Amino acid sequence: MEPSELLAKARARAANPSDPLETLAAASILSQELSRDADALLDLAVHHARAAGTSWTAIGDRLGVSKQAARKRFAKPFTHPFATRRTRREAACSFCRTPPGPRVHMVHGEAGRICADCVALAGEIVADLKAKAKH
Ligand SMILES: [Zn+2]
């Protein structure tokens, strides 16, 4: 759409079309709407490209940005399966409440879970008890 057409559209929306400042205010709002529409257009086009198997590298090339920038701008934020607070709490170590994570090794039992740190601590406690029992 031509700028003069857009200005006419803004003027038609202005409370008082003969007041240039009212037209400017309406143009500002229209500009924000167009900007949101433009963003939505790109989001949709990228979504379709991704659905068709296009790489982030190719998408970035076409948009004139890096693969990382394209992914950061358009990729849906990754939601970890343990992302919700309740699920994190339920999946936490039953002894120390450490939540699950990529670096937390957890042993799952029927009534709960135990993290590797608690397994090690439990091992030391049992070893101490056995050593004391011998004396
Ligand atoms: Zn633990």
From TrEMBL:
Keywords from the UniProt entry: Chaperone, Metal-binding, Zinc
One Pfam family here: zf-C4_ClpX
Amino acids binding Zn(2+): 93, 96, 115, 118
InterPro entries per UniProt: Znf_CLPX-like, Znf_CppX_C4, Znf_CppX_C4_sf
Every ClpX-type ZB domain range: 81-134
GO annotation (BP), single: protein folding
Gene Ontology molecular function, alphabetical: protein dimerization activity; unfolded protein binding; zinc ion binding
Family: Belongs to the ClpX chaperone family.
Protein name: ClpX-type ZB domain-containing protein
Organism per entry: Acrocarpospora corrugata
